[in-house]
């Protein structure tokens, strides 16, 4: 196996007639582009196809197991620690030592694999940049393939961007953040690439193409002999972690690099996964660099897991912070687990973005960020996430002031007190109230996010916060649950019950507000009406869809039959 080292991004003219040069059984349905062809080489596609063929049945089974678990929870069962794996939780063992290149991860910035974003994030002063194919990206063919081109240039160190509007050229500084890549979750297909007649698994496409083209340069330039580095989303149990571990081992074997070269941090962002943290780390023990508190998705998962439990309704989402007992317990248990196993315990996202036209509001927002980060570092987290470069100095200051010269707190903050955290702690009902304003905000944010997603943007600034798919998911599932159980809105003294009629009125009024806020012209150009239909349909559906993005995906798939033809 050999990565593309200095391939020309422009394919020879004769290739343009026949489309992509795909191996047997692989069909490319996405638009042909000379730059994309340098990524979708025959050998790279063969590598992706080999991964798909080896692991597709295990992935299908894992997804069936998710559905079976969901059915059990809907019948009244609660998630909990697995008695069969008690020995893994109780025995003393550690993961492989953390590679020196990523020992210090005090502040990590995240964002989509968009060209200018990649340059700004790598130059931001953060220790790590997590380049995202998942919740911060709308997975159109153009975005995904352009993202692969951008990452290859970033790893090579040659990436530049000419902003014609500002007449400015962006390029990398000498000192840059370490690059992690987040592929999509197991559940998302890639409809533009068919392997043996069925859509490829999205994450195997993201991982396979990136790994194939970049492992050699990454290990030489970025990883000091280790890498590439990844973030793994949406896992629910150690069965899914085991598949990733096998994918990594296969990739290392094919590439001829040492076992344990690839390293990954797993996002603990589903409720079932919090009971499987030891087991997940154990499966990935040769490839792990810790766990991360994916808190917005975790809240989304709490609602989804308890969708049939009317006694576990969440309050307004703005009230569900990390000081609620169930979220604090999750964070504390994650820190104790990671440090006991010798790896990083990463904190959650600061989603605020600088408020340029209101210095006082900006100061208040920064103070909230500092407070949240101080809570994290004092709890024992080794680093944290920021959505905007403007937050990095404040986050870095809080972590550096409290950690001194040490790169992490793995040895110094063992958090033995968290060893007594129980299932009841992790499942405790959140406290708070529900309001009409909460219903309105969910609706407004959900529709605007989805409208942006449908037009190719997956990371959207709304009301001074950077929103991604996770916040839209919370909005959707909370509306759905409130509608299903006709909850009383007790937070604003109105005492109104949520009904389809009330929701219809709220949707109508919020659409009018969105039109006022964005302006008639943008409203007409954007896909707000289409987004509104999809969002409202999902909120009022008799059964809850697992993922907003999975349901809406067919709206952004564009097939170009001449991309390539399989040779069968």
From TrEMBL:
The entry's family comment says: Belongs to the malate synthase family.
Per UniProt, residues of the Malate synthase TIM barrel domain are: 178-428
- Extract the GO molecular function terms from the UniProt entry: malate synthase activity
> What name is this protein filed under?
Malate synthase
Span of domain Malate synthase C-terminal = 436-556
Q: In which pathway does it act?
A: Carbohydrate metabolism; glyoxylate cycle; (S)-malate from isocitrate: step 2/2
State the CDD domains in the record. Answer: malate_synt_A
Organism listed in the record: Populus alba (White poplar)
Indicate the residues that form the catalytic site.
182, 468
> What keyword terms does UniProt attach to this protein?
Glyoxylate bypass, Glyoxysome, Peroxisome, Transferase, Tricarboxylic acid cycle
Q: Which SUPFAM superfamilies match?
A: Malate synthase G
Domain of life here? Eukaryota
* CC annotations in GO: glyoxysome
